[in-house]
Amino acid sequence: MGKNLKYNQRLFTYQDYLTWPEVERWELLNGKAYNMTPAPSRKHQEISGQLHTLFNNYMKGKQCRVYAAPFEVRLPQVHETADQTSTVVQPDLVLVCDTNKLDDRGCLGSPDLVIEITSPSTFQKDLKEKFNLYEKVGVREYWIVHPEEKTISVFQLTKEGKFSRPEVYIEEDSIVVGIFQDLLIDLQDVFS
């Protein structure tokens, strides 16, 4: 496919996405293609692994499921079929409680919680484009993890369908997960 695709003016759909090499990771945001290669840093992987483990341990015996990237989340607009969707993201972690949204390809519809771990190349997209996207499609909780600063910004979806002001947590804090009030995440475990 080539890394220069993200500069191409053509708009793509999930049907196009399925034809691209599996060794490359891509996202589609409103038809624009973004190459997610190269692989994340070691620190990114460690944080993702810790969060995945903490959520996965909590989910045992519960209906909700947690998935780590690469995991496709297809977010079709009202007028789009699943194959015509112009938005396919691969968040670092997703939690899905409605198992009817899960299929062999990933998730079709909004996850309940999305976690993006920023890097210099994804920071602006995570903070602006994906923030707006996740708010629009009704993701109940959105976390943006800043590995270098060892902070997490947590946004909760309000009754009005907008994300609240962020709650910002530092390494010494613990987060009560908004969608699971009995789950406490100690950030020293995450950032150690």
TrEMBL record:
GO molecular function: endonuclease activity
Putative restriction endonuclease domain residues: 15-177
SUPFAM superfamilies: Restriction endonuclease-like
Keywords, in A-Z order: Endonuclease, Hydrolase, Nuclease
Keyword Iron-sulfur: no
Top-level taxon of the source organism: Bacteria
Annotated InterPro entries: Nuclease_put_TT1808, Restrct_endonuc-II-like, Uma2
Entry protein name: Endonuclease, Uma2 family (Restriction endonuclease fold)
Pfam families: Uma2
